[in-house]
Write a structure and sequence with these properties.
Layout lengths: L24 E10 L6 E3 L3 H9 L5 H14 L5 H11 L5 E5 L5 E3 L3 E7 L7 H4 L1 H32 L9 E3 L8 H12 L8 H11 L13 H5 L3 H16 L5 E5 L5 H12 L1 H7 L2 E5 L5 H16 L1 E3 L5 E3 L3 E5 L5 H13 L7 E5 L1 H4 L9 E10 L2 E4 L17 E6 L5 E5 L8 E3 L2 E5 L2 E2 L5 H8 L2
Parallel strand pairs: 6-12, 7-8, 8-11, 11-12
Antiparallel strand pairs: 1-5, 1-13, 2-4, 3-5, 3-18, 9-10, 13-14, 15-16, 15-17, 18-19
Helix pairs in contact: 2-3, 5-6, 5-13, 6-7, 10-11, 10-12, 12-13
The structure holds (3E)-3-[(phenylamino)methylidene]oxan-2-one.
The site of (3E)-3-[(phenylamino)methylidene]oxan-2-one has 12 residues, from β8.
Length: 463
């Protein structure tokens, strides 16, 4: 099994579609859009990984034979002559043109993000054949990057009101590697989060960003405890020894060390252990201990832990009138974190006079796994075909759900240079001095002809 075999990286029914278009069909033009969803704009990311790993890999005779053998026993026809012709005519390089919005750019939903068409009429059937793999490659990283950026907006707003925005890049840490469906999903989703933030425990995401987007290590972490390292020191009575060891191993002047502290009683840990018995050692170390609750109702627990640490270690009131803990202690909440709970926690803290500077968030399942194609209602649809030399509009408009209507024509994305607004409209012939064309050709006839670096993508995604 070769996972770059595009003849098999599709839905079964697509193997029968080359026999279903009207005679004379020469070109099929399709587009990808987010038809709306939880967020009103999407941050485009991830296409380049797919182009490098899959779409730019030429098909071989071996792959064709593998596809044919599978189709025959699977219950589908197989376009053997078509694939062999593609191999002979183009050495297996796919005769497609893919245009896309620059990676990292944020575009209102309802606009075209990617278009695909075949470049040779013999291969009219290829455009839709790649939908399955292409749409899957785009919706997931784009949705992860979109939600991560929306959370960044929320945290930024609270930092602006209550504290110091310079801490923003490390306020949302990716804890999601263990909760995703596969290694590849960890890489893709983890890289998508790093478009917006610099903190991650998903090493695979950092590695994918480095492999596909030409960057130095783009994500950072710090030493941190897990429950096993806290509870193997002799149970409840040993927890303080585990904490003391964390200080001995990692607490150096200027360093950060995170310690999950809810193994038995998070409030006792904050007050009596960190805030009393270990207080001098914490202060003398010159480090910042990041106390991590990991159970209970997050807004309630975080507020209470911050209040306790405030009583024990003291705090200052900043110029915005909000309390900031002594620099030797902070809190990270990584349990029950999602778009909604982050708002609740920050609102609860602000309501009691505490700055967002005091906390960071760890987000796992909700960041990398609790999203799906419907989160932003992603679809790829055909919008035009050429039949016997004539372009025809293609669309659907079901009475049972107008939300599933599709667009017509050879579409492009434009940005109004005066208002900055994005509009989707027909592909224009000439340049226009008001409407700037936004889709760039990234893939042509088997080759990647435009690449983005991770730095460019991060710049495009800035808020
Ligand atoms: N990591 C900040 C650094 C990471 C983690 C990873 C699941 C960290 C914990 C922490 O402080 O506490 C995967 C749960 C936690």
């Amino acid at each position: 099994m070769n996972n770059t075999n595009i003849t098999l990286n599709t839905d079964s029914y697509k193997m029968s579609h080359w026999l279903q278009y009207p005679p004379g069909t020469e070109y099929v033009f399709s587009y990808i859009e987010s038809r709306g969803g939880k967020f009103s704009e999407t941050t485009f990311f991830g296409l380049q990984m797919f182009l490098k790993e899959y779409l730019s890999k030429p098909i071989t005779m071996e792959m064709i034979l593998e596809g044919k053998a599978f189709a025959e026993v699977h219950g589908e026809p197989f376009n053997y002559e078509g694939w062999v012709r593609l191999l002979d005519k183009y050495n297996g390089k796919l005769p497609l043109i893919v245009r896309a919005v620059p990676e990292g750019l944020t575009v209102p939903t309802g606009n075209v993000l990617v278009t695909v068409e075949n470049t040779d009429p013999e291969f009219y059937w290829l455009t839709s054949y790649v939908e399955t793999a292409l749409l899957r490659a785009v919706w997931y990283p784009t949705t992860v990057a979109t939600q991560s950026r929306e959370i960044k907006k929320v945290i930024k707003r609270y930092l602006e009101e209550t504290g110091d925005v310079s801490g923003l890049p490390f306020k949302l840490h990716d804890f999601g590697a263990r909760g995703v469906s596969s290694y590849e999903s960890a890489g893709i989703g983890g890289a998508a989060h790093l478009v917006n933030f610099m903190g991650t425990d998903t090493i695979t995401g950092a590695l994918f960003a480095m492999k596909y987007y030409d960057t130095e290590v783009p994500g950072f972490s710090i030493p941190a405890a897990e429950h096993s390292t806290m509870t193997t020191w002799g149970g409840r009575e040993g927890e303080i020894d585990a904490m003391r060891n964390m200080l001995a191993q990692f607490a150096k002047p200027g360093s950060l060390v995170a310690v999950v502290s809810d193994s038995y009683d998070i409030y006792n840990a904050a007050k009596e252990l960190w805030g009393n018995k270990l207080k001098e050692e914490v202060l003398n170390s010159g480090a910042t201990v990041v106390v991590r609750p990991d159970s209970g109702n997050p807004p309630e627990v975080v507020l209470k832990v911050v209040e306790i640490l405030g009583e024990q270690f003291g705090y200052e009131t900043n110029e915005k009138g909000f309390k900031v803990l002594h620099p030797s202690v902070r809190v990270i909440q990584g349990d029950g974190i999602n778009y909604e709970s982050i708002k609740e926690i920050l609102e609860t803290l602000a309501g009691s006079g505490w700055s967002a500077d005091n906390v960071a968030f760890g987000m796992g399942g909700a960041l990398l796994q609790q999203v799906n194609r419907d989160t932003q209602k992603f679809a790829m649809k055909a919008s035009a075909t050429m039949v016997n030399g004539q372009w025809r509009d293609v669309f659907k408009d079901p009475i049972t759900d107008k939300g599933k209507s599709s667009k017509k024509g050879r579409l492009a994305l434009y940005r109004n240079r005066e208002t900055g607004e994005y509009v989707t409209g027909p592909e224009a012939n000439g340049a226009d001095n008001v409407y700037e064309p936004m889709l760039k050709t990234v893939f042509l006839n088997g080759d990647i002809i435009k690449e983005y670096t991770f730095d460019e993508i991060r710049k495009n995604a800035e808020i």
